[in-house]
Amino acid sequence: MRLNERYLNAVMIVGLLALPLWAVVADQPFTITLVTRAVILALAAVGLNIILGIGGMVSFGHAVFFGIGGYAMGILAYHAQTYTALDLGLFSMDGTKSMPMIWLVAMILSAIVAVFIGLLSLRTSGVYFIMITLAFGQMFFYFAISWAQYGGEDGLSIYVRNDFPGLNTLAPIQFYTICFTLLCVVLFLFARLQASPFGLALNAARQTSVRVETVGLNPMQLKLLAFVISGAITGLAGALFADLNRFVSPTMFSWQLSGELIVLIIIGGVGRLMGPVIGACVFVALEHFLGELTDFWHVYLGLVLLCIVLFGRGGLTGLLTGKEGAHV
Asked: Which of 231, 243, 234, 232 is nearest to 74 (CA)?
């Protein structure tokens, strides 16, 4: 029996609402935290899915933006909790514990960095694009390790979660509500973007850039704009992830994290609306339940990924709906 994709999407949304509510009734706060982690990883993967699923760009350095978002949160919150000014050379500014302000800073910084990385990396394609994005990721990773002012290799701890107007963010269900709402907003934007003239042109540029040029469009500009939007969304996810853990470290820039985001999309379905969400839920579930049994749970994740690549080109979404996803 094949499911309608819209029905599958609705089931996922209802599940992400029902499970935390059950956890509140059953007094299981850790379950809420676990689902929150899945939602935040899904948010980051939705950002990556814009360039991977629509644009066909395999970025192995998207953890750069995840880490920038995390460190934006960490640095601003650190200066707020220590009552010290953030010295930016030409001027200084106070830190902040306001989540909306931190999200804005994280997204702007991620977008700016995405412009510079995109301008250089999009001159290449294929394996060269993969390698140059990986190189940028490693550059930021080792810079964070050497940044002793903010913990270096040991990372930076934040004592109290940041504030959101009208909510107690220390309550797991209320922080989850924030993350879930942002995920729904980004999923809506992804759906609108994919169906828009821009999304169609980006998809065309993925298939044959020459034909796109013949109708007067610039494939480089299309891909760069998608790269910047993707980076900003992933930066937002990084800020939320750092707030969830109240901790930031150089591992947020690691190539392993970039690889995990790609794995999430492949598991769920490349280019599918709920692909990153399904992939993130499966990943976190395997990490939690198999991680209790063995430290080598990645072996089983590898087997799942292998089966999907061999037998389900559309990921789990494709297997359930009978439709293949985008080909990269």
From this structure: 243
| CA-CA-CA-CA torsion sign (168, 173, 175, 180) | negative
8 Å CB contact between 321 and 314: yes
- 173 token code pair: 């269900």
What is the number of domains present in the chain? 1
How confident is the model at residue 323, as a pLDDT? 67
Tell me the three state secondary structure of residue 274.
coil
Which of the four pLDDT bands, split at 50, 70 and 90, describes residue 327?
Answer: low
Examine residue 4 and state whether it is found in any structural domain, yes or no: no
Q: To which residue do tokens 């209802």 refer?
A: 14
DSSP assignment, residue 2?
P
Q: What integer best gives the mean pLDDT of the chain?
A: 91
**Cβ atoms of 60 and 258 closer than 8 Å:** yes
Residue written as token pair 């200084």: 92
Distance CA(68)–CA(62), nearest Å, equals: 10
pLDDT of residue 107: 97
Residue 133 lies in a domain: yes
At 319 the pLDDT is: 85
Establish if 203 belongs to a structural domain.
yes
Which residue type does 192 have?
A: R
Q: Is 115 contained in some domain?
A: yes
What is the reported pTM?
A: 0.94
